[in-house]
Amino acid sequence: MAMFLTIKVFLLKPNENSKKKPSLKLGKRLQQIEKMATLEEYGHIWDCCCDHGLLGCALLNRQAEATISDTSSNMPVNIVSNTARNKDSDIHFVDIVPELMAELASKLHRFYSSSLNAVIAKNWQTHCLDVATLPLDRYDGKHLVIIAGVGGDLMIKFIEAINKQHNNLAIDFLLCPVHHQFTLRSKLIELDFSLKDEVLVEENQRFYEVLLVSSSSTSDSRENSKVSPVGDKIWQSDSSTQLTIDSSGLSIKNSNEHTIKVSLSQAEIADKYLNNTLNHYQRMQKGFQQSTEQGNQRVKANNVNPDVQHIIDAYRTVTLPILVS
User: Fold this and answer.
1) Is the dihedral of CA 235, 239, 244, 249 positive or negative?
2) How confident is the model at residue 301 (pLDDT cuts 50, 70, 90)?
């Protein structure tokens, strides 16, 4: 019987009579990251800077759902256990704050103490350490390292350290920087990483790029593409083939109204994000020009207002889909 905890960090509801997975209230950003982490492909998934562990728990829940499905099919318990152990990923929760990790470990132990979740209980570990020192070589199988909730500058330090320490491994990284996206992408290009997927998400009036990249180059992984300094797929949508514009506004040609509305929304998100990004760097460039004109050597020496014209020029090359009339 599943035991559901009522704890603020997991947002779980007690339901002793249900065998369904616990409900985690993830925002759009974490939902997208969770969706892009394909459990079947990886032996080990590292939820770095995991905070309260919501993302890692969502991944465990997905595995628990598969176990429940096997149990419902009247498969013997020992076979369910062996099957789950073969197909599931190990989820590693990583954060550098000792108190946070101790609390998370305690709650994970309590939640997965039931007989139903006993198999899943074998598939997670907590690590109180610096992300730059992940012990990937201690574990066999393919690794996915998820880093979210920090800036692109800090991500670069983590990625460089991990890539240098484990340069013999092909590692995938699922990244969601809160800022410095251009800087991060430039470093990924310098490291000759390849792109597997990228998505743009808007949540609470903020925009997030989610990048799934591999330490393998495009020559080693031909199904992957090169990383763009400003992004490629994040600007695309299917709106141009699904919508027409007439004098009264938008008219729907396809009967799948839900798909059309989602597509239009994504096109609007891309447009807003591009404008916001350009405005941000244009303000930075204005500050650089003012400091240069004033001959402010201290400001220039501290790189407070760097020259970002090359970034502006790069984003100006972005072409958004145009709705056909």
Assistant:
1) negative
2) low
